[in-house]
Write a structure and sequence with these properties.
The chain has helices spanning about 15-30, 60-65, 100-115, 135-145, 160-170, 175-185, 190-195, 210-220, 330-340, 370-375, 375-395; strands at about 80-85, 95, 125, 150, 170-175, 200-205, 220-230, 235-240, 245-250, 255-260, 270-280, 290-295, 295-300, 310, 315, 320-325, 325-330, 350-355, 360-365, 400-405, 415-420. The protein is an alpha/beta fold. The protein binds adenosine-5'-diphosphate and zinc ion. Zinc ion binds near residues 240, 242, 247, 302 and 304.
């Protein structure tokens, strides 16, 4: 465990962070210049971060074009592990890590466990896959590194997950944001009384703040979100117990927010696309990687005392946007509306249906038996939710209330929008 002890780095001053980042950035330029993909395209050194604008961006498309080894900066024998992205926006990409990379990744993961105040007294049920998907591996590495008891139940098989939660009384789970919603929507009052769940460490996809409030109020579960991606070895920013943004591991990544149209940096506090340069990645030293995720840097220092800057969890990807009859819609907006009016977790699915040149939005929402038979309640829900959705997405949606268990089971990342 001592091997991964690096608490102090989270509390050094922003000036020290900036100095450290500059020297690590230059080290990455040297590493990157050895790869086939970057050779001849990068300077050997920058003198300050104001020079960064002259350095080209790297995109997921570049990764695909240089598949599989174009970005590799070490000899193949040094590769300790491969991972692949989930392929949400196209074919998955393969990412490699050396043992040194894995040690740095483990340190990051442990920080999240510390933020959530998890210790060896806790039992964690890990509902994440541990195959090519980086999330499961990341969190399990952290738990092993920190000496926390882990029950690796993997994805899906919800009935069994609930039985084990009741039998072994795990007080924390690791899962994706969508699966947490699904799992909670499947719990009966009796299940709730029999389990001992207090915390959930989640990530991998957008999560609405309204849902987090429901998780806390109705289920007594404190949600700690993380954000990251396979290209960076998993999460690189984590929510502390103040729940006002995610601390970026600034000793391991250099972040920028850019205007996605012009590519220029925007000031702290403004929304734009997140661009990341990993500072410690030895196997694949990406430079200025465009994430397509839209977020902003939270300008103020966090009262928890950590000095690493925070970002908002990205509400959407730039390529997530759906245009319905000229109106831009993001799936996360729909979810935010749903949880404004529902007191419990639910499973839902949005259909965008083409109809004589126009598009209709139909939302299937699962409800418990009690709610479905309560006509007064149902009418009110329909009226309020339709109104709120209309005010967000400007299109009047059709709502279908259906009984629990009608929609397909959820595993891994959730597909909430179907284009038909
Ligand atoms: P992909 O889904 O692109 O195939 P990954 O499995 O590596 O690849 O997922 C990384 C992406 O997942 C991020 O770029 C981001 O869009 C999304 N993501 C991860 N964590 C979060 C989060 N906490 N909030 C919103 N989006 C997230
Ligand atoms: Zn904090």
């Amino acid at each position: 465990m001592m091997k991964y002890d690096d608490d102090k780095i989270e509390y050094i001053s922003q000036d020290e962070i900036k100095d450290l980042q500059l020297s690590l950035f230059n080290q990455q330029l040297q590493r990157a210049n050895c790869t086939q993909a970057y050779r001849g395209k990068l300077p050997n050194k920058i003198n300050s971060f104001s020079d960064i604008k002259n350095i080209p961006f790297t995109t997921k498309e570049d990764l695909r074009q240089n598949f599989p080894y174009g970005f590799l900066a070490v000899s193949k024998e040094k590769i300790a592990r491969f991972n692949a992205s989930s392929g949400t926006t196209g074919i998955p990409t393969l990412i490699f890590f050396t043992q040194q990379d894995i040690d740095y990744i483990t340190k990051r993961g442990i920080r999240h466990l510390n933020m959530a105040e998890l210790t060896s007294d806790n039992i964690v049920q890990s509902m994440l896959g541990s195959g090519l998907f980086v999330g499961g591996w990341y969190h399990n590495l952290a738990a092993f590194g920190r000496g926390i008891t882990i029950l690796p139940t993997g994805t899906g098989n919800t009935k069994r997950q609930i039985t084990l939660l009741k039998q072994l009384k795990a007080d924390c789970i690791f899962t994706t944001s969508g699966y947490l919603q699904y799992l909670l929507s499947q719990l009966t009052e009796k299940d709730l009384a029999d389990i001992n769940l207090k915390k959930a460490l989640v990530g991998a996809e957008p999560l609405s703040r309204s849902f987090c409030e429901i998780a806390q109020k109705k289920y007594g579960i404190e949600v700690y979100e993380s954000y990251g991606m396979t290209e960076m070895g998993g999460p690189l920013s984590h929510e502390c117990s103040l729940h006002k943004g995610l601390h970026v591991a600034e000793d391991q990544v250099y972040i920028e927010i850019i205007n996605p149209e012009t590519g220029e940096n925007v000031p702290d506090g403004e929304y734009g696309e997140l661009v990341i340069t990993p500072l410690q990645q030895e196997a694949m030293p990406f430079i200025r990687y465009r994430t397509r995720d839209i977020t902003r840097i939270i300008p103020n220092l966090c009262p928890c005392g950590r000095t690493h800057r925070k970002i908002e969890p990205p509400s959407h990807r730039a390529d997530d946007m759906i245009i319905v009859n000229g109106v831009n819609i993001f799936p996360s907006q729909i979810e935010e509306c749903i949880y404004k009016h529902l007191p419990v977790s639910t499973n839902y699915l949005v259909h965008i249906i083409k109809n004589e040149g126009l598009k209709k939005v139909v939302v299937d929402i699962e409800l418990t038996k009690n709610l479905l038979v309560d006509e007064g309640c149902l009418k009110k829900l329909e009226k309020d939710l339709t109104q709120t959705l209309k005010s967000y997405i400007t299109v009047s949606p059709k709502l279908n209330f259906i009984s629990q268990g009608t929609l397909p089971d959820i595993q891994g990342k959730v597909k909430r929008i179907l284009m038909e």
